[in-house]
Input
Amino acid sequence: MFTVIKTGLETSVQDFPGRIGFRDQGFPPSGPMDSWSFRLANRLVGNEVGCAALECQYIGPTLAFEQDAVIAITGANMTPKIDGLAIPMWTSIFIKAGQELSLIFAKVGVRSYIAIAGGINSQPWLGSQSTFHKAGVGGIEGRALQKGQHIDWRSVELNNTLINRAVKSEALPDINNDKAISINVVYGPNEGWLDEAGKAKFLTEPWKLSSKSDRTGFRLEGPTLTFTDKAHNKSPEHGSEPSNIIDQGYPVGGINLAGETPIILVNDGPSMGGFINPFTVPGCEFWKLAQAKPGSQLYFKEITVQQAQRLGREQTEACNDDKITNQ
Output
């Protein structure tokens, strides 16, 4: 096990793909925001890609290991160290009993992932170990790590083949501090509620990522959009605002027009409500959102569903075991 010395900012247990099949009961999938980095972390330590690991955001934790372990750190660069000595990212590392792993502020990106050979051991809830903070379920007691907690991982035989494994350069996500980020979107399910000028404005003008963003939704600040006639001339049950619609199911990644504020519904987002979603961010693009800092300028580019599916397959292939090499 390890002991939590410093918690970081809402460090939580997640697994991939999360809690699937319960949106009709109001429970989102949760799971890692940057599933590309998450899956590679697990690959590095010899786990299945979906094994439970830690997601850290903005500020990482300090953990005291009470048994030998093999770990890997991926995603945002939080300057990981063992007993004060820097260790490489995207590489599997042996950590001895009695040593401390520490992460600090993210220098590049936002979210880091800590995988441990064997995977975090916690009680699944509705088939997943992923933490859903707002309902207080999953993970460790349904919440982020707490100071002084003792966290177990599943026992696994440690050997030299698990150590000094690295991700091939062609399989790495391009995590950087660029202020301008291009995000692919697909049309729908409610694109017919925006007029052509409104759709063009959304796809051509920059949107600022608000600091009022979390694992429920990423809020965007930008231009005022315009709507078709049916958004203004509709039956009362659709609501008074042009973006109101009779309650419907929301897709994960839906760009929800809550009044005039677009909100990208991410991993812990609601499953239904009464606003339109004219565009959807496909899952293969979530890693970009996960690593985008508040204040970033997001530019949206329309692609087809088929193109999004192809990008998703390429990302999955980048997380295969053949993309890991022994140094």
